Amino acid sequence: MVSDIQHGCRNNVYTPRQLWSGNRSPVSVLYACSLFVMLSGGMAQEKLQAVKHDVPVSLAMLQLWSSFGTAHHNCPNGIHRGACLLDSSWQSVALIGLLAVSHFNQRDSRFVPAFNSSLVRACDKRLSLKGPIDIGGDAIGTLQQIADLKKDVAGLPDIFIGPITSDGSLSMVALAGLPLTTIISYWPSSPEASLSSRYPRFMRTIPSDNDLALAVCSFWEHEMQFEAAAVINSNDAKGERYKQALQRYCLEDVYMDLRSFAFEIGSPEGIEEAVKAFGQTGINIALVIASASDTVGVFELAVKHEVLRRSPPSLWAIADSVSPTDLFALSDEAKDAVDGSVRIVATGATETNPRWRRFVQEWPTFTPPPLSELLPSNWSTAAEFFSDFDVNASTVARDVGTFMYDAVAAAALQACVVAPQGPVPSTFGADFHDAKRNVSFAGLSGTVYFDEAGDRDPTSGNFILSNVLLNDSTREFSFVVRASLKASRWDWSEGQRNLVYNYRSESTPVARLQPPPPPPPPP
After folding, report:
1. What domains are defined for the chain?
2. Closest to 376 (Cα-Cα) out of 160, 88, 75
């Protein structure tokens, strides 16, 4: 635990427990402590020779600008590379990533104090960006962009920042035939990525779904005293791994009756079959783990088949893949049913984080960072966007952009640890990954540090529970934060559980129907 190490370093107390969770030699103890002191700015401020920050560490940044597979007449923001351009919230993520590169190169420490630490000021590295690359458009075009990085073998990226999804762009990196690659990701939360031997140098700044599953089970069992629940999930890496984590915690740790119903991605028939099967269980509590479009499909069919119930009240939950804008696609009848659902996610931004508060305050004053001119032309110019966009009100900026900024920060700081001076060595990738547990820093998403697998340590993550609420006049949704998870307990914003449930019910849901529904009629 980082707090243990800080205590040990400050008080000259060194025990194995205070060095994360492994056996460390005295040399590694001293190394970890000296690194903590340097990154936290606690080193005696000796005069350092002026160091030019001119040795490049190359980054390929994978971002999400568009969504392929939607009919073009349903693209309100226009078309980009044959796909629907996403809304402006995703422009905020793109710009936040570019800002992080610029801030490190300028040693601007307003949002990551370690950028001005003794270690970093003495480091001659700068980040050289290859990209950014949109991974949301046509798969063949995206694959070609990634494969083009191989043309200049000497210029291959040292680090990938990204990808967005565990299935899609991790596979694209592998299919493009790139050599063993160091990846720091900012949004895929599926445990699959860090477990897979295909990506032995994978790290992420967003907590894993393993940790999120524990938060969900804690809410269901400890807060609501539900004895049963169900998962309706797509059968991709995220859906399956998240479901397995829920089964492990909810079944084995808290002994709930947890059922699961999987469907093929994008299959209306598969979704309907899963929803109807769920309806026969008599269970009244459900979590949907799927893409935004498939989540909309699940809710429409749940209303059609009357398994999202008004009486007795249900409690359904949505995953982090769904934004308020996505739910606008629901029919009016489904919107009324979804009103009062919950959303439990790992969040990046918290109002208690002074670095995030300062970022929000200074957002309108930012100037366009280098390469912002490469973003889609249908979006606003960067200068207009900084002036007009409310970054603090954006779920995507808070829950994706913050992790993007800290992924870039982790790449930069770790590069300075393993190669503070001189050219990037041939062993850079292996050295970089080996050093992952020796770096921690304060960033936009809180204090960041990594475990042995390269996942963000769960104790450094922030988890929130929100009510999904419908505005009757605009028919638009918002996510209203009700609680945060602290020390394995939910801390409610008003001092007590202040939730409403589906159909905006104020009555506490029941986990099962009594008696269960009758079996379906014979075909």
Report:
1. 2-39 (no CATH), 55-206+349-457 (3.40.50.2300), 209-347+461-504 (3.40.50.2300)
2. 88
